Amino acid sequence: MKTKLGDPSPGESLALVGASGGDEEIDLSLLKDSLSKTPWERMQANDDALRFADTLRAAMEKRNAKPERIDPPAG
Q1: What residues have CB less than 8 Å from 11, skipping those under 6 apart?
Q2: If DSSP codes are grouped into helix, strand and coil, which group holds residue 17?
Q3: pLDDT for position 75
Q4: Are the CB atoms for 17 and 23 separated by under 8 Å?
Q5: Distance between the two ends of the chain, CA-based, in angstroms?
Q6: How far apart are CA 26 and CA 46, in angstroms?
Q7: Helix (H, G, I), strand (E, B) or coil at 40
Q8: CA-CA-CA-CA torsion for 61, 50, 25, 16, nearest 10 degrees?
Q9: In 1-75, which ranges are continuous DSSP H helix?
Q10: Do 8 and 29 touch, CB atoms closer than 8 A?
Q11: For residue 23, what are the β-bridge partners?
Q12: The pTM is what?
C-alpha cells in the first residue's frame, strides 16, 4: 500500500505507530520544507547544527570545568 503525501496544512502531522509500540508523529510541514531544499542546502543546515552543538558542548565543558589551582610563586 502506497501513500501519497499532499500539501500539508501548517501544523498537520502524520501519526505513526513505531516498532516499539509507541505512538509517534511527523510534522509534515517540516518534512515538506526539508524536501524543498537541495541536498547541498540540507548539508549546510546540518553543518550549521553541528557547529552550534559543538559550541554548546564547549560552553558546558567550560562551565563545568574545575578551576585550576594556582600556586603562589616560590620565593
Answers
A1: 27, 29
A2: strand
A3: 63
A4: yes
A5: 83
A6: 19
A7: helix
A8: -110
A9: 28-35, 39-64
A10: yes
A11: 17
A12: 0.52
How far is it, in rounded angstroms, from Cα 56 to Cα 65? Answer: 14
| 44 to 7, 10, 20, 24, 66: CA distances (angstroms) | 25, 25, 32, 27, 35
| Burial grade of 36 (CB within 10 A; 0-12, 13-18, 19 or more) | exposed
Kindly state the average pLDDT of the residues 61-66.
87
Per the CB < 8 A criterion, the answer to whether 55 and 62 are in contact is: no
Whether residue 58 contacts residue 51, with contact meaning beta carbons closer than 8 Å, is answered with no
As given in the structure block, the three cell numbers for residue 72 are 603562589
Amino acid at 18: G
The amino acid at 31: L
Percentage of the chain exceeding pLDDT 70: 68
